[in-house]
Amino acid sequence: MGGKYRITGDTYPRMRPPRRRGRLVAAVVASVAALGVAGWGTLQLIDVFTGGDGSVSGHAADCRTKVAKAAPVKALPKPGTITVNVYNATTRSGLAKQTADELKKRGFKIGDVGNADKQFDKKVKGTGMLIGPATALDTTLPVLSTQLTDAERRTDAARKGTELDLVIGDRFKALTQRPAADSAVTKLTAPEQVAAVTTTKKKTC
């Protein structure tokens, strides 16, 4: 060849295509970008199922063990702190004293003992009536009612003091059997022994 393209010497130019470094670099960049997008997508899916706080949501969240604790039971007054007046509203004599003596054996304090006044005399058709001040409704009355479980309970807002009345009615035969009454008193006055805070586990799925 002549002119400026004239070949001189014994070395010839190589007639091969240029190296493809540009394509290689582009492929590497594309791979890195794809990996980044995949990682970001994975994080987004985790956020969807965990609610963004790392915990599993949806059905998986519901399938876990739930622990429930019962509220502590408040102990009620013991019989030794309760004064009971016993009145007989029936035509049978001696019931007030007999009943008062039995209540005393069971730990109650005894106040007045005698016949019921005109308000209740021969007017109590059930086994009996328990009467106390308004404050006794959820305190001392439930304790006394363990001794005569089917007796009617009443409160008098105008009544002063803490004493309770047990008015014996026509259907009265005897106080509740002592074993059952003592067990009921124990549950009310010392709940930590038989009804302490309980823990229950429930698995929901």
UniProtKB/TrEMBL annotation:
Record carries keyword Transmembrane: yes
Pfam families: LytR_C (PF13399)
Gene3D superfamilies, A to Z: 3.30.70.2390
Domain LytR/CpsA/Psr regulator C-terminal: from-to ranges: 81-172
Keywords for this protein: Membrane, Transmembrane, Transmembrane helix
Membrane-spanning segments: 24-43
Protein name, UniProt field: LytR family transcriptional regulator
